[in-house]
Amino acid sequence: MREYGLDKDFKLNLEGNHANLAMHTYQHEIRVAREAGLLGSLDANQGDKLIGWDIDEYPSNLYETTAAMWEVVQNGSIGPRGGLNFDAKPRRTSFKPVDLFYGHIVGMDSFAAGLRVAAAMKEDGFLDDLVKQRYASWDEGFGKSIEEGKENFKTIEPKVLDMPQSELRASTQSDHLEEVKDTINHFIIETLAK
Fold first, then answer.
1. What is the pLDDT of residues 115-168, one digit of tens each?
2. Residues 17, 47 contacting (CB under 8 angstroms)
3. Where in the cell is it found (predicted)?
4. Which residue stretches of the chain have pLDDT < 50?
5. Is residue 73 in a domain?
6. Distances (CA, A) of 189 to 156, 180, 185, 194
7. CA of 63: how far to CAs of 46, 68, 187, 189, in Å?
8. Contact 21, 54 (CB under 8 A)
9. Is 154 a domain residue?
10. Model pTM?
11. Phi (first) and psi of residue 14, to 5 degrees
């Protein structure tokens, strides 16, 4: 899109199930588009990660819709004229008009809940603080020098190869992943209980 200047007129429509088929998360796809300035609209669907083809289910996974809406909140909106659209379809066992009605309800409710939780996390600053702490080493010293382009592989290699193991281990920190997931779970539970 950039090569032909199309990025000024067109943005991306991202689908959760296509991310799964590419072995990515929906949040990853949205973040890449967001950071590239190409976030346009979102297909409000999900797939079954075990099936391996595009089945376009109505979304119901609150953890995934929260992660998707986190990227939207970080972006300030979905896109300049984008929105959520349903590319979901009737299931083999769920095909009556009433099923489509409830499918749209669960989909919109799931994304609305995800948006509420993402907004609560943004207001709290929890994830922003976590990212800032995680990448703090890029704000000073060697990390800052790399980020400013003052280093390259030739200058980095001898510094890293000569660094004692004890120093490498001391600079390694736990991401506390389970604690982070637990905190996100609490945001989901507490926000939706209100």
1. 999 999 999 999 999 999 989 989 998 889 999 999 999 999 998 888 888 988
2. yes
3. Cytoplasm
4. none
5. yes
6. 45, 14, 6, 9
7. 12, 9, 10, 11
8. yes
9. no
10. 0.87
11. -105, 140
